[in-house]
Structures are given as C-alpha cells and as structure tokens.
Design goal:
This protein has one domain. It is built from 4 helices and no strands. About 11% of the residues have low confidence.
C-alpha cells in the first residue's frame, strides 16, 4: 500500500485533541464579549484622555484608574480576538484582575467618596455604566473557562 492510497480521517478545526469540542474565543458568545470589551475600551480610553487633558489635577486618581481600565479592556479584547490557549489564559488572568479592580474601586468609592472628586469607570461597581463593568469580567471568566482546550 502506497502512502498516497492511505486515507486519514480529516482533522476538524472544531475539535481539540481527544475529539472534544474546541471553542474559538471570539466566536459565539465570545463575539459578544469582544464587542462589549471593544466598546468599553473605546469608552474608557476616550473618557480618560478627555479628563486628563481637560483637568487632570481635579481627580488624578480617578482619571488614572479610568486609563488603567481602558488598558485592561483593550488587552482582553486583543486576547479574545487573537485566540489560542496562551491568549485565553492571559485574558482569564486579566478578567480576574479586572473583577478585583472593580470590587476594590467600587467599595473604595462607596466608603470614601472624598478620595474620588470625579467618578471612574469602576466607581460604584460600574453604576454609571449599568453595572456592566462588574458583570463583564464574571461573564468573561465563565466563557474563558468554558473555552478551555483540554
């Protein structure tokens, strides 16, 4: 039997080794996450840039935290679009960090409002953004754990 006569089972891009279903990070529900993270990247970055240019001295901590939020959102967006196991793990770590940031800043803004003369994206757990900043990382972590390629 020649090598050319052998037929091998086609490898489906939808299955991981072992025949398990493989998820692409930016497909299905991941596509919605990419959209939300993309919108929040633009929103947080735009807000931070305008606030820093217009009156950085008014609330430097709040404006810097909004810029940090924009960087985190941007990295998660990039990771979801890029795909792959390494990107999935990086996005998962960033989502956990984002959730920690939202919880710390949200609590801090409620306990010591004088520390924040102006709000951040994460103030009051994202109250100004319909609480999406606290819901998004939880949803992201659920999707990223489900999308794990075993």
């Amino acid at each position: 039997m020649r090598d050319t006569d052998r037929t091998e089972a086609p490898v489906s891009p939808d299955t991981a080794p072992g025949g398990k279903q493989r998820f692409e990070l930016g497909t299905g529900p991941g596509r919605l996450l990419v959209w939300f993270y993309g919108v929040f990247t633009v929103a947080a970055a735009s807000r931070a840039i305008v606030e820093m240019i217009m009156d950085f001295g008014k609330a430097p901590l709040a404006y810097t935290l909004s810029a940090v939020a924009a960087l985190v959102y941007g990295f998660i967006t990039y990771s979801l679009v890029r795909g792959g196991e390494k990107a999935r793990r990086a996005a998962l770590v960033c989502c956990a960090g984002e959730l920690a940031g939202v919880l710390v800043v949200g609590t801090w803004t409620l306990l010591e409002p004088s520390a924040f003369p102006d709000s951040t994206v994460w103030s009051g757990f994202g109250m100004g953004y319909l609480f999406i900043p606290v819901i998004l990382p939880v949803t992201g972590m659920i999707w990223l754990r489900r999308a794990r390629n075993d």
